[in-house]
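Our platform keeps sequence and structure together, in a single record for each protein. Such a record has a labelled line for the sequence and another for the backbone structure tokens. The tokens are whole numbers drawn from a learned vocabulary of local backbone shapes. The remainder of this section carries one protein's record, kept here as part of the documentation:
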Amino acid sequence: MQLQPSLLGNPIFWLRLVAYGYVCANLIRSHGVALGFDDRTYSARDLLSSVDDSSITTQVDAHAQAFDAILQRGL
């Protein structure tokens, strides 16, 4: 597999990036708001749906559930 010049053209990297953003958004929501950070909407499902890779877009709910499991379990 050759890297593409676009984030959306690299589905596995995109999946990891969305997961990282999801964890960061939840960290800000749980700890950063008290420090003055804005709690912004982060839709992992919308971001995952935007990639042109059927192995990700057909499993959006499963990926989102995995992200939630990571948050519940901890790293």
